[in-house]
């Protein structure tokens, strides 16, 4: 039996979708998500699938990379997927590219608002453009979490995620509509003011040293200059689910650019990379992207990586 394992590892969680087929019939599971709990995502991955696959199962692992993943990390990934997960074939693609595939596009700009930071990535005709990418680590959901943890303290630490998901928002207009009442009817403790909630929301995209919207605008402007066309953009990642994020991005672009900009809709913002990875696995050229276990044993991870990466470097 053949199986496809599409994997998206982040600092907050490991997401995957396993699609298996037997006698021409495909069985697709929903995207599964497991928290890393501050553990190395690769070790979480190997623990998840240590006893998952029978020795006779033909597993293809499609690993979705961050845009600026260094070569040494890619080599380590190849080792883990073959040696620890037990894959028979391994393929890499970039999460930014497959996120665009999920919306039916192969060119565009991806604004990924994650836990450990915000990433801006440009893809042209399915090829990542490293010179039009940036990674911002002082912002993201972890920055919001940190401020809420400082204000709530240990006594009210259990409210951290509830406040973030239901009360925090991005943008001054959204912040004025915020409330101090939680979904269960409870009222926020006095140690966390409405101003603190608004500040926690703003830290998702802006810190003392970083403005994600400015960086996104800069990449957007440079991409127009290099490609001579206005690329669509997508806002995705778990952090993008916070109220006001999409509106803030759209308003920022409209403020600085007179030409129309097209936003791609992410049906499942947290899972766009996985959804697009499943689409990628169905195209005819996908098999050419794969390294099989025989090639891995013969050449090792370093040569496998250099021969199979699909970017402009």
UniProtKB/TrEMBL annotation:
Q: Which InterPro entries match?
A: Actin, ATPase_NBD
Which Gene3D superfamilies does the entry link to? 3.30.420.40, Actin, Chain A, domain 4 (3.90.640.10)
Pfam families reported for this sequence: Actin
**Annotated PANTHER family:** ACTIN
Q: What is stated as this protein's family in its record? A: Belongs to the actin family.
Q: What is this protein called?
A: Actin, putative
Instruction: List the taxonomic lineage.
Output: Eukaryota, Discoba, Euglenozoa, Kinetoplastea, Metakinetoplastina
């Amino acid at each position: 039996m053949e199986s496809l394992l599409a994997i998206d590892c982040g600092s907050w969680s490991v997401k995957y979708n396993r699609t298996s087929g037997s006698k021409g019939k495909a069985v697709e599971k929903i995207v599964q998500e497991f928290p890393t709990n501050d553990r190395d995502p690769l070790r979480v991955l190997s623990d998840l699938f240590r006893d998952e696959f029978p020795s006779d199962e033909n597993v293809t692992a499609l690993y979705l990379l961050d845009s600026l993943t260094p070569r040494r990390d890619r080599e380590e990934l190849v080792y883990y997927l073959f040696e620890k997960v037990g894959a028979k074939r391994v393929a890499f693609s970039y999460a930014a590219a497959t996120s665009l595939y999920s919306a039916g596009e192969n060119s565009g700009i991806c604004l990924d608002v994650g836990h450990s930071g915000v990433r801006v990535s440009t893809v042209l005709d399915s090829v990542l453009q490293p010179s039009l990418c940036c990674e911002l680590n002082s912002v993201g959901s972890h920055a919001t979490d940190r401020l809420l943890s400082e204000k709530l303290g240990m006594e009210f630490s259990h409210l951290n995620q509830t406040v973030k998901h239901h009360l925090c928002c991005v943008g001054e207009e959204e912040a004025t509509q915020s409330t101090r009442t939680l979904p269960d009817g409870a009222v926020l403790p006095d140690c966390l003011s409405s101003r603190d909630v608004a500040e926690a929301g703003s830290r998702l995209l802006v810190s003392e040293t970083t403005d994600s919207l400015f960086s996104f605008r800069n990449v957007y402007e440079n991409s127009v200059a290099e490609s001579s066309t206005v690329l669509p953009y997508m806002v995705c990642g778990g952090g993008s689910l916070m109220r006001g994020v999409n509106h803030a991005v759209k308003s920022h672009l409209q403020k600085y650019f007179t030409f129309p900009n097209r936003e791609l809709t992410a049906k499942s913002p947290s899972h766009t990379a996985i959804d697009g990875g499943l689409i990628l696995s169905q195209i005819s050229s996908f098999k050419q992207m794969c390294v099989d276990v025989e090639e891995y044993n013969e050449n090792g991870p370093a040569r496998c990586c250099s021969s199979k990466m699909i970017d402009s470097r």
